[in-house]
Design brief:
By secondary structure, the chain is an alpha/beta fold. It has 14 helices and 12 strands. The strands form 2 sheets. Strands 1, 2, 3, 6, 7, 8, 9, 10, 11 and 12 form a 10-stranded mixed β-sheet that branches. Strands 4-5 form a two-stranded antiparallel sheet. A hairpin with a 2-residue loop joins strand 4 and strand 5.
Length: about 350
């Protein structure tokens, strides 16, 4: 009995230890999570975070909606947060477990996609524009014509990131339309310009950070943080803000309804709202974040980076994408499907 009692105590101790150390499953965009941040979190909490990457909002949504994903946290873009909430896939956050929620900068609290930050907290925000190697092409880069009416110098050398919402909406702005339109005439114009341009593209790939750094591509529809990372490796690369209109985005962390490691998830959510930790996220992926006070911990090169600091002349052209109606989403999906042929 004594041996049994001792064995039971040992088992309870080991179980308690395993629980204290804990695990967490984070479902996030690829090449977007700072390894240093995860190492610091594990050192401070004993919780080991496993990151699984996805490459589009639609892929992430489909994976979780299918059920049994095993993930605890997800990082959807602004216009997808209402979709996740509407489908009951994410749950309202318990603010009593988030002592650092007050660190969210005021302008990022009452956001259109999550009023009062009921479901999410900020991860990073930025823009979608055009990365161009100016040694190859010296023309105007602040226009979607770079990929929709491809200059001769860039034909067969340009990539387009395969993110439907960004690409289709860039085309809609280019032809004089608006995001999420249900105007079939405008949608046809956007479709036609995309289909006509595609033969001049080299690829539709997510690997711009590496491939433009290595001069494998001369241009790409790309995100600003990724482009900053490219420029640091390849100074000939510049970032253009399409004057016809370009998307702004904010990716935010949400707790999944079927999360298994809920307490660990809350510790991580609270952890990333500490200004120094939010700065670690930005320092890695090179996007701004929504946490007040994080600027003091940012690398100096981000404080003046042309990819991060939007020039005044192009600020009015940047827009957060709305959440499309089912009909508008259906139209966009049809365009995207045709573009994949």
């Amino acid at each position: 009995m004594k041996k049994l009692f001792s064995a039971t105590l040992l088992l309870l101790a080991s179980t308690s230890l395993a629980s204290a150390e804990g695990t967490l499953q984070l479902f996030n965009w690829g090449n977007y999570t700072s390894p240093e941040l995860l190492a610091k979190f594990e050192k401070e909490t004993g919780i080991k975070v496993t990151v699984t990457d996805y490459d589009s909002n639609d892929a992430a949504l489909a994976k979780v909606e299918a059920g049994g994903s095993g993930f605890d946290l997800v990082v959807p873009s602004a216009n997808y947060v209402p979709i996740w909430a509407g489908k009951g896939l994410i749950v309202p956050l318990d603010d009593s477990k988030l002592k650092n929620k007050g660190n969210i900068a005021p302008e990022w609290i009452d956001v259109a996609w999550d009023k009062g930050r009921v479901y999410t907290v900020p991860w990073q925000w930025g823009s979608t524009g055009i990365a161009v190697n100016t040694k190859v092409y010296g023309g105007d880069i602040n226009t979607s014509a770079v990929f929709l009416d491809v200059p001769d110098e860039l034909k067969g050398k340009i990539n387009v990131v395969p993110e439907m919402n960004d690409v289709v909406n860039l085309a809609l702005w280019y032809v004089g339309g608006e995001p999420c339109t249900e105007d079939t005439a405008v949608l046809k114009k956007a479709r036609d310009v995309l289909v006509a341009a595609k033969p001049d593209w080299l690829s539709m790939d997510y690997g711009a950070t590496e491939k433009m750094s290595n001069n494998d591509w001369a241009a790409s529809v790309n995100w600003n943080g990724s482009t900053m990372r490219i420029r640091l490796a390849n100074p000939d690369v510049k970032y253009g803000f399409p004057k016809e209109g370009y998307p702004l985005f904010m990716d935010s962390v949400a707790l999944l309804k079927d999360a298994q490691n809920v307490e660990e998830a809350y510790k991580f959510i609270d952890f990333i709202m500490v200004p120094e930790n939010a700065a670690m996220i930005s320092s890695f992926a090179r996007y701004a974040n929504g946490i007040a006070g994080s600027e003091a911990f940012m690398p100096e090169d981000m404080k003046t980076a042309p990819e991060v600091m939007i020039p005044d002349e192009f600020k009015a052209s940047g827009h957060f994408l709305p959440t499309c109606s089912p009909k508008a989403q259906e139209y966009m999906t049809a365009i995207w499907t045709e573009l994949q042929k």
